[in-house]
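During the second half of the funding period, the structural biology subgroup turned its attention to how the target accommodates small molecules. The most pressing case was manganese (II) ion, which had performed well in the primary screen but for which no bound structure existed. We therefore specified the complex as follows and requested a full 3D prediction, including the ligand pose.
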Amino acid sequence: MKVKEIIKLMEFSSKEDIDLVSSAFSFAEEAHRDQKRFSGEPYFIHIFETAITLAELGMSATTISAGLLHDCLEDGKATQEELKEKFGKEILFLVEGTSKLGKIKYRGVKRHSESLRKLLVAVSQDIRVIIIKLADRLHNMKTLQYVPEHKQYRIANETLEIYVPIAYRLGIRKLNRELEDLAFPYVYPDNFIKTKKLLKTRISEDNEKLKKFQRSVIKLLAKKKIIDFRVDYRIKTLYSLFNKLERKDWNIDKIYDISAMRIIISNADDCYKVLGLIHGMWRPLPGRIKDYIAFPKPNGYRAIHTTIFTGYGNVVEIQIKDKEMYRESEYGVASHASFKEKKTDKDNFLWIQRLLPFKFILNGNNDRKEKNLDDVPVWLKDMVEYQKTIKDGEDIKEDMKNDFFQQRIFAFTPQGDVVDLPIGSTPIDFAYSIHSDIGNHISEAKVNGKMTSFDTPLMNGDIIEIITKKNVIPKKKWLSYVKTASAKKHIQASLKK
Ligand code: MN
């Protein structure tokens, strides 16, 4: 584990970038000294691997440094003051955001999953926090076998239900696929074995043919004077194959993209030309030609897909894209330069639009907009509308930023259940939203382990413990503390009695 290995992956790095990453590296090494992972390995391996993933995604020196420091407040020996003094406000913000996300737990209650994804976005505020968290989760998933068995399912399920959909919506397919496949055996062990077996028989049949076919494609493109191209093939990942098998009654012969050939060219205009060359040489399967350049997928994916008969007795899906489309298809938002350097707030919040179905973002044409808005949660629509009102080059004020992200706050029970409340809610609102009996008998409230008065507004990510006593009854002044209608109603009802 050398800092050089990280720096090597950083494109266009300046001397300042290298200095920053190097000093974060040594700081983190020191902060985690003598700490061990469940595997018995030094804790710093986890830090190092997180930073490697961030560097591979092409993230900036600031984000990579925050990745190196992401656990040093929670698990390491560092303090907030130290981080702020040594690395500044921005990195401290990213590290704190990542630590906060770590406290959010999904315990398999489906009705909480959308709230949790929403919370993740609200708490993160900055796309970089989510990307650091995804990189962190990737290494945790890679080492999940060392984690105590009773925790494995929860973590894997959380990965699949919460983090994978976010990675997918952000278009970071590389992480999305890896996380899926790492979680798969823990969440659906039987289907994992079944899918793996099916795929194994299929691949061994296909492999030889694919290699031969790859050579023919290369020969054809070279002959037709396409320069600077790459042809490779990928096998469908297990979890996405499993999903498709479920849709196709487990009939593997109905799945045409188990292996796909990728043709990556340098010039976008050549995509259609290459399609023509391929179809001139091999017969395409009708109805399988998809122009995702003219009609990108909802997550922004662009390419041309076609499926052809190879002449070796099998069919193969061919994906044609240029280098930029390829990068975009693997790295999504992480591939956009605007996220690499801190720009204006308008740029910084653009990523939120990525969470929307693609067509909604692109057109101002009202009828199509309506059609695509149905499955977009209201909070997300609000955020995007707000984002659009930020003027070019304008930096919005800190308190407005809070409004923007904190229309609602999310607080937790000590068990990690999430409670969704309007901004300004207090421990009494929290108690009532769990159960009216708990609200009616609240005697003390602890916020993040500290005793707190009943009129204290809760913050995003707070963990609330409510202590009840049988003889406590609602008091009139509580009415001035609460924000939620249901708490008000219960207090009034009880006062009448
Ligand atoms: Mn971590």
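Two results from this model are relevant to the next phase. The chain has three domains: 3-183, 189-331, 407-496. The radius of gyration is 26 Å.
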